[in-house]
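Researcher: I'd like a structural prediction for the single chain below. Treat it as a standalone chain; there are no partners to consider.
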Amino acid sequence: MRIQNSKAISIKSELGWTKAPDVKKDINKIIKVLDMPYIKQNRIYCYRTQGSKSRSYARIWSFPRIFQDALQQQPAYVIEVLSRHYDKLNADERVKVLIHELLHIPKNFSGALVPHITRSRHLGRTANIFFKEYKQNINK
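Model: Treating it as a single chain, here is the predicted structure.
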């Protein structure tokens, strides 16, 4: 809410999602090129968000075990790209962002998320290493 001339004016921001088949296609390509067989491509869902105020380029959403059990579903992940920032990136930067999000998925594909920093790795550095590998393998 914003105050203007002593009157409260409600500023409404429309937050909307749409399926992102272009992102899904890129995700599938990355999984194949980087040989990530533990990621079940059919359990990754991709969406593009408009209207978010977040400074993020993308986010990954988990599907915790309690919901898996309650809904009788297998683990799944949603990768959300925020149109406001993501769509301005060049192709290489988009791939880096998607690799970063995929690295949040644990090797057991449990529905949980790997944090940015663990004892054995720093997700940002690991994403850069994977991106270099991706670029080498994509050109073969």
